[in-house]
Amino acid sequence: MTTVQSATNITGFSAGAPQKYKRKRIEPLKAWRAIKALIADKEDTGQVFKIVDALSGGADDRMYRRFMTTETGQRVVAEKRDLIMLLNDRERLKKLPEGTLGRTYYEFMAEENLTADGLVAASEEAPRRNDRPEGAMIFGDRMRDSHDLWHVTTSYGRDALGELSQLAFYYAQTRNRGIGFIVLVGAMNAHKRAPQLGVWRAVREGYRLGKAAKWLPAADWEALLDKPLAEVRQQLGMGVPSVYREIEPIASALEGQMYSEQKKAA
Protein backbone atom coordinates (compact mmCIF):
# COMPACT_ATOMS: atom_id res chain seq x y z
CA MET A 1 0.00 0.00 0.00
CA THR A 2 1.42 3.42 -0.93
CA THR A 3 1.71 6.34 1.48
CA VAL A 4 -1.00 8.20 -0.43
CA GLN A 5 -3.37 5.25 -0.20
CA SER A 6 -2.64 4.85 3.51
CA ALA A 7 -3.30 8.54 4.20
CA THR A 8 -6.55 8.38 2.21
CA ASN A 9 -7.75 5.39 4.25
CA ILE A 10 -7.12 7.27 7.49
CA THR A 11 -8.46 10.70 6.58
CA GLY A 12 -11.13 9.85 4.02
CA PHE A 13 -9.68 12.53 1.71
CA SER A 14 -8.21 12.03 -1.73
CA ALA A 15 -6.90 14.88 -3.90
CA GLY A 16 -8.65 17.35 -1.64
CA ALA A 17 -12.08 15.69 -1.92
CA PRO A 18 -13.85 14.16 1.09
CA GLN A 19 -14.79 10.49 0.99
CA LYS A 20 -18.51 9.92 0.43
CA TYR A 21 -20.32 8.21 3.26
CA LYS A 22 -23.89 8.06 4.46
CA ARG A 23 -25.31 11.32 5.81
CA LYS A 24 -26.63 11.09 9.36
CA ARG A 25 -30.44 11.12 9.57
CA ILE A 26 -32.21 13.55 11.92
CA GLU A 27 -34.43 11.78 14.49
CA PRO A 28 -36.59 14.36 16.33
CA LEU A 29 -38.65 11.85 18.37
CA LYS A 30 -35.54 10.20 19.69
CA ALA A 31 -34.19 13.62 20.66
CA TRP A 32 -37.42 14.59 22.43
CA ARG A 33 -37.44 11.42 24.53
CA ALA A 34 -33.82 12.03 25.51
CA ILE A 35 -34.35 15.69 26.41
CA LYS A 36 -37.24 14.74 28.72
CA ALA A 37 -35.01 12.19 30.43
CA LEU A 38 -32.23 14.78 30.76
CA ILE A 39 -34.57 17.34 32.34
CA ALA A 40 -35.66 14.70 34.83
CA ASP A 41 -32.03 13.88 35.68
CA LYS A 42 -29.45 16.46 34.62
CA GLU A 43 -26.61 14.11 35.68
CA ASP A 44 -27.63 11.57 33.03
CA THR A 45 -24.90 12.58 30.59
CA GLY A 46 -25.72 9.73 28.25
CA GLN A 47 -28.90 11.55 27.23
CA VAL A 48 -26.81 14.46 25.92
CA PHE A 49 -25.02 12.14 23.52
CA LYS A 50 -28.35 10.68 22.40
CA ILE A 51 -29.75 14.15 21.66
CA VAL A 52 -26.67 15.23 19.76
CA ASP A 53 -26.64 11.98 17.79
CA ALA A 54 -30.32 12.37 16.91
CA LEU A 55 -30.10 15.97 15.67
CA SER A 56 -26.53 16.55 14.51
CA GLY A 57 -27.19 15.74 10.85
CA GLY A 58 -24.08 16.67 8.85
CA ALA A 59 -22.51 18.87 11.55
CA ASP A 60 -19.82 16.36 12.50
CA ASP A 61 -18.83 15.83 8.88
CA ARG A 62 -18.60 19.58 8.26
CA MET A 63 -16.43 20.05 11.34
CA TYR A 64 -14.17 17.18 10.33
CA ARG A 65 -13.64 18.67 6.87
CA ARG A 66 -12.74 22.00 8.48
CA PHE A 67 -10.48 20.23 11.01
CA MET A 68 -8.56 18.60 8.18
CA THR A 69 -7.79 22.00 6.61
CA THR A 70 -5.74 22.93 9.72
CA GLU A 71 -2.14 21.95 10.43
CA THR A 72 -3.13 20.61 13.85
CA GLY A 73 -5.89 18.49 12.36
CA GLN A 74 -3.57 16.96 9.79
CA ARG A 75 -0.96 16.16 12.48
CA VAL A 76 -3.53 14.70 14.89
CA VAL A 77 -4.89 12.32 12.26
CA ALA A 78 -1.51 11.41 10.73
CA GLU A 79 -0.12 10.62 14.21
CA LYS A 80 -3.36 8.90 15.26
CA ARG A 81 -3.29 10.83 18.52
CA ASP A 82 -5.34 9.56 21.45
CA LEU A 83 -5.99 12.55 23.72
CA ILE A 84 -7.63 10.50 26.46
CA MET A 85 -4.42 8.58 27.15
CA LEU A 86 -2.71 11.86 27.98
CA LEU A 87 -5.62 13.09 30.11
CA ASN A 88 -5.68 9.82 32.04
CA ASP A 89 -2.03 10.24 33.04
CA ARG A 90 -3.00 11.91 36.31
CA GLU A 91 0.49 11.64 37.82
CA ARG A 92 2.03 13.60 34.94
CA LEU A 93 -0.68 16.26 35.07
CA LYS A 94 -0.35 16.53 38.86
CA LYS A 95 3.39 17.24 38.54
CA LEU A 96 2.95 20.11 36.09
CA PRO A 97 3.59 23.62 37.46
CA GLU A 98 0.69 25.27 39.26
CA GLY A 99 -1.36 27.48 36.96
CA THR A 100 -0.73 25.47 33.80
CA LEU A 101 -3.65 24.16 31.77
CA GLY A 102 -2.75 20.56 32.55
CA ARG A 103 -2.40 21.09 36.30
CA THR A 104 -5.62 23.12 36.45
CA TYR A 105 -7.40 20.39 34.49
CA TYR A 106 -6.12 17.80 36.98
CA GLU A 107 -7.38 19.88 39.93
CA PHE A 108 -10.73 20.47 38.22
CA MET A 109 -11.26 16.76 37.62
CA ALA A 110 -10.14 15.82 41.15
CA GLU A 111 -12.43 18.43 42.75
CA GLU A 112 -15.41 17.26 40.69
CA ASN A 113 -14.51 13.58 41.25
CA LEU A 114 -14.39 12.98 37.49
CA THR A 115 -12.27 10.84 35.21
CA ALA A 116 -11.55 11.29 31.52
CA ASP A 117 -13.06 7.85 30.91
CA GLY A 118 -16.44 8.95 32.31
CA LEU A 119 -17.49 10.64 29.07
CA VAL A 120 -16.41 7.61 27.06
CA ALA A 121 -18.83 5.41 29.00
CA ALA A 122 -21.66 7.96 28.64
CA SER A 123 -21.04 8.34 24.89
CA GLU A 124 -21.52 4.61 24.37
CA GLU A 125 -25.27 5.11 24.94
CA ALA A 126 -25.44 6.63 21.45
CA PRO A 127 -24.70 4.44 18.40
CA ARG A 128 -21.23 4.81 16.92
CA ARG A 129 -20.96 5.60 13.20
CA ASN A 130 -18.62 2.92 11.93
CA ASP A 131 -19.11 3.98 8.29
CA ARG A 132 -16.83 6.98 8.74
CA PRO A 133 -13.10 7.06 7.85
CA GLU A 134 -10.60 6.48 10.64
CA GLY A 135 -9.63 10.16 10.72
CA ALA A 136 -13.23 11.20 11.39
CA MET A 137 -13.42 8.69 14.24
CA ILE A 138 -10.22 10.12 15.73
CA PHE A 139 -11.68 13.62 15.47
CA GLY A 140 -15.00 12.58 17.05
CA ASP A 141 -13.24 10.95 20.00
CA ARG A 142 -11.06 14.03 20.41
CA MET A 143 -14.10 16.31 20.58
CA ARG A 144 -15.67 14.11 23.24
CA ASP A 145 -12.47 13.75 25.28
CA SER A 146 -11.69 17.48 25.28
CA HIS A 147 -15.03 18.45 26.89
CA ASP A 148 -13.59 19.20 30.32
CA LEU A 149 -10.59 20.98 28.79
CA TRP A 150 -13.16 23.35 27.31
CA HIS A 151 -14.59 23.85 30.81
CA VAL A 152 -11.19 24.77 32.21
CA THR A 153 -10.29 26.99 29.26
CA THR A 154 -13.59 28.87 29.10
CA SER A 155 -13.79 28.98 32.95
CA TYR A 156 -17.39 27.74 32.99
CA GLY A 157 -18.14 25.44 35.93
CA ARG A 158 -20.05 22.16 35.99
CA ASP A 159 -23.06 23.70 37.74
CA ALA A 160 -26.27 23.72 35.70
CA LEU A 161 -25.83 27.33 34.55
CA GLY A 162 -22.16 26.73 33.70
CA GLU A 163 -22.99 23.67 31.60
CA LEU A 164 -25.76 25.52 29.79
CA SER A 165 -23.59 28.57 29.11
CA GLN A 166 -20.74 26.41 27.87
CA LEU A 167 -23.11 24.54 25.56
CA ALA A 168 -24.12 27.92 24.09
CA PHE A 169 -20.39 28.59 23.56
CA TYR A 170 -20.05 25.13 22.03
CA TYR A 171 -23.01 25.70 19.70
CA ALA A 172 -21.47 28.93 18.41
CA GLN A 173 -18.29 26.98 17.62
CA THR A 174 -19.86 23.87 16.08
CA ARG A 175 -23.31 24.84 14.75
CA ASN A 176 -24.50 21.43 15.89
CA ARG A 177 -28.31 21.52 16.02
CA GLY A 178 -28.37 18.89 18.76
CA ILE A 179 -26.38 21.20 21.02
CA GLY A 180 -28.57 24.15 20.04
CA PHE A 181 -31.69 22.17 20.94
CA ILE A 182 -30.31 21.32 24.39
CA VAL A 183 -29.46 24.98 25.01
CA LEU A 184 -32.90 26.19 23.89
CA VAL A 185 -34.88 23.68 25.97
CA GLY A 186 -32.53 23.99 28.94
CA ALA A 187 -32.72 27.79 28.99
CA MET A 188 -36.51 27.77 28.61
CA ASN A 189 -36.84 25.30 31.47
CA ALA A 190 -34.44 27.24 33.73
CA HIS A 191 -36.16 30.58 32.95
CA LYS A 192 -39.54 29.06 33.78
CA ARG A 193 -38.29 27.92 37.20
CA ALA A 194 -36.38 31.14 38.00
CA PRO A 195 -37.35 34.02 35.67
CA GLN A 196 -35.62 36.55 37.94
CA LEU A 197 -32.23 34.90 37.44
CA GLY A 198 -31.41 36.09 33.93
CA VAL A 199 -30.50 32.72 32.43
CA TRP A 200 -30.94 34.00 28.87
CA ARG A 201 -28.31 36.70 29.53
CA ALA A 202 -25.76 34.04 30.47
CA VAL A 203 -26.67 31.89 27.47
CA ARG A 204 -26.38 34.81 25.04
CA GLU A 205 -23.03 35.71 26.60
CA GLY A 206 -21.79 32.13 26.11
CA TYR A 207 -22.82 32.24 22.45
CA ARG A 208 -21.07 35.61 21.90
CA LEU A 209 -17.88 34.38 23.56
CA GLY A 210 -17.94 31.24 21.43
CA LYS A 211 -18.31 33.32 18.25
CA ALA A 212 -15.40 35.55 19.22
CA ALA A 213 -12.96 32.81 20.28
CA LYS A 214 -10.57 30.85 18.10
CA TRP A 215 -11.94 27.54 16.80
CA LEU A 216 -11.32 25.19 19.74
CA PRO A 217 -11.81 21.89 17.83
CA ALA A 218 -8.48 22.64 16.13
CA ALA A 219 -6.64 23.46 19.37
CA ASP A 220 -3.41 21.53 19.88
CA TRP A 221 -4.33 20.40 23.39
CA GLU A 222 -1.25 18.21 23.73
CA ALA A 223 1.02 21.24 23.27
CA LEU A 224 -1.16 23.53 25.41
CA LEU A 225 -1.28 21.36 28.55
CA ASP A 226 2.18 22.49 29.72
CA LYS A 227 1.47 26.19 29.16
CA PRO A 228 0.13 28.70 31.73
CA LEU A 229 -3.66 28.76 31.61
CA ALA A 230 -3.72 32.56 31.29
CA GLU A 231 -1.51 32.28 28.19
CA VAL A 232 -3.70 29.52 26.73
CA ARG A 233 -6.84 31.60 27.24
CA GLN A 234 -5.23 34.58 25.55
CA GLN A 235 -3.96 32.44 22.66
CA LEU A 236 -7.42 30.98 22.09
CA GLY A 237 -9.18 34.35 22.36
CA MET A 238 -11.19 33.55 25.46
CA GLY A 239 -13.40 36.34 26.77
CA VAL A 240 -14.51 36.75 30.38
CA PRO A 241 -17.94 35.23 31.20
CA SER A 242 -18.87 38.15 33.45
CA VAL A 243 -22.64 37.55 33.38
CA TYR A 244 -22.16 33.92 34.36
CA ARG A 245 -19.86 34.88 37.24
CA GLU A 246 -22.35 37.50 38.40
CA ILE A 247 -25.37 35.20 38.65
CA GLU A 248 -23.71 31.79 39.27
CA PRO A 249 -23.80 32.06 43.11
CA ILE A 250 -27.53 32.82 43.03
CA ALA A 251 -28.18 30.06 40.47
CA SER A 252 -26.22 27.50 42.50
CA ALA A 253 -28.10 28.46 45.67
CA LEU A 254 -31.46 28.06 43.90
CA GLU A 255 -30.32 24.75 42.41
CA GLY A 256 -29.34 23.50 45.87
CA GLN A 257 -32.68 24.63 47.33
CA MET A 258 -34.65 22.87 44.59
CA TYR A 259 -32.62 19.69 45.08
CA SER A 260 -33.34 19.74 48.83
CA GLU A 261 -37.06 20.24 48.23
CA GLN A 262 -37.16 17.39 45.72
CA LYS A 263 -35.31 15.14 48.16
CA LYS A 264 -37.75 15.92 50.95
CA ALA A 265 -40.72 15.31 48.67
CA ALA A 266 -39.27 11.94 47.65
Key structural traits:
single chain, mainly alpha, two-stranded antiparallel sheet, 68% helix, 266 residues, disordered N terminus, globular
3D architecture notes:
The chain has a two-stranded antiparallel sheet. Helix content is 68%, strand content 2%. The protein is built from 17 helices and two strands. Mean pLDDT is 85; it is low at 1-8 and 14-19. The chain starts with a helix and ends with a helix. The chain is globular and about 50 Å long. It has 266 residues and is mainly alpha-helical. It has helices at 3-11, 28-40, 45-55, 59-67, 71-78, 83-87, 90-95, 101-111, 117-123, 134-145, 147-154, 160-174, 177-193, 199-212, 221-224, 229-235, 242-265, and strands at 13-14, 17-18. The longest helix has 24 residues, at 242-265. Helix 8 (101-111) packs across helix 11.
